[in-house]
Amino acid sequence: MVEIFRSIVENFDWRYVVMWLIGGVLIYLAIKKDMEPTLLLPLGFGTIMVNLPLSGAIGPEGALTTLFNAGIANELFPLILFIGIGAMIDFGPVLANPKLMIFGAAAQFGIFLTFCLASIFFDIPDAASIGIIGAADGPTAIVVAQQLNSTYVGAIMVAAYSYMALVPIIQPPVIKALTTKKERLIRMPYKGKEISKTTRILFPIIITVIAGLVAPSSVALVGFLMFGNLIRECGVLDSLSETAQKVLANLVTIFLGITIATKMNAEEFLQPATLLILGLGLFAFIFDTAGGVLFAKFLNLFLKEKINPMIGAAGISAFPMSGRVVHKMGLKEDPQNFLLMHSIGVNVSGQIASVIAGGLILSFFG
Amino acid sequence: MNIFENISIDRFLGSLRYMGEGMICIFIVIGVIILSIYGMNAAMSKIAQRKKDKENAENQND
């Protein structure tokens, strides 16, 4: 007994206490502030688990390490989660108005700008993994960071999921700073269009082929997302679609959050680099938002029928949060201005574009 | 790794190339996807129109 206590005391490190506090903050944010609770809560609890002296949860035979090797080191969990996400997304608004997709592309600017900035301090694979935080897409961030062997997976995860939850706080001031009142008041009538079932079925297949031909490394990312969507749209696999949307997505999310905590050990996490990564992640989010808004303003210089530049901000992958934020901002400016269908269209485009951006980064540096 | 000892402006300048290439590639991929959706929508509405015309013709014959 005395021996056990002695070894615990000998292995105790003040940094563990800091990590317990960080774990506690993550749990608090998940429960009290409702910030991405499905991920921040398991992550917070896992952080405490791995930062106990002589923790049996990590190490060569630790359960969390085993889960990490089985599901994250080989990118299995994030890819399976993509099936669930794909099954949840209705690409109807994009199919009805395909040109909205261009904003999804423009809003990936922050990823590449942050990558350049991060490359001042970090080696290229780490810088690329940090840049992808701007995708606002947790699974993509995990796959990219893991494939590029980044040493900062834990910090990247915390940044990606925290900022995703902070979209309603981060985006409005950026949008307001870049647009005039007159621009925010631009109305965009929605011309609803019926999309044939064949189009809905062909869409995920075509996207996979195009993305795969241009960026072969993105095939797994795009393919799993689109496979989930094909299950949803085919009309003959309703029970599988329902399982993918609920049971599968929830199951993987439970393991994903707690397993990522393996990378939250004090030694790896408590470094000046973590603070810098959190800062760069915020920078990426801000410039993704700015990229979309500024691109819409640029297009307005040439368009007769003006676009409300706020919808450009929804081009990040945080679905459907970003689309709703833009819609609410539109209603706040003018209670008769309904931007929801446009902003959601841009938002789902952002989902596709961010996955393609992840694939491109893997093609460049993988 | 001490990130402040790892500062490199050369790496930054080298990365700018990837920013340009990355954004161009994304716009190309998205552009192709947009065009294929327009093509798909046009083809589907043409098929639907033909089907409708055929049905109309059959009804008239009846």
Largest sheet data of chain A? none
What is the radius of gyration of chain A?
21 Å
Q: Low-confidence spans of chain A: pLDDT under 50, at least 5 residues?
A: none
Q: Please report which band the strand proportion of chain A falls in: under 5%, 5-15%, 15-25%, 25-35%, 35-45% or over 45%.
A: under 5%
The sequence of SSEs of chain A as H and E is HHHHHHHHHHHHHHHHHHHH
Integer count of domains of chain A = 1
- Residue windows where pLDDT falls under 50 for at least 5 positions of chain B: none
- Work out the largest interface and the residue count of each chain: A-B, 47 and 34 residues
Q: Which shape of chain A, going by the Cα principal axes?
A: globular
**Average pLDDT reading of chain B:** 88
Tally the helices of chain A. 20
Structural description of this entry:
The complex is a heterodimer of chains A (366) and B (62). Chain A is an all-alpha fold and 366 residues long. Chain A has one domain (81-365). Helix content of chain A is 73%, strand content 0%. Chain A contains 20 helices and no strands. Chain A has helices at residues 2-11, 14-32, 37-50, 63-72, 76-88, 92-96, 101-106, 109-121, 124-131, 138-147, 153-165, 167-178, 181-184, 197-214, 219-234, 238-260, 266-269, 272-300, 321-333, 340-365. By secondary structure, chain B is an all-alpha fold. Chain B has a domain at 29-62. Chain B is built from one helix and no strands. The radius of gyration of chain B is 26 Å and the shape is rod-shaped. Chain B starts with 8 loop residues before the first helix and ends with a helix. The model of chain B has no long low-confidence stretch (mean pLDDT 88). The interface between A and B is large, with 47 and 34 residues.
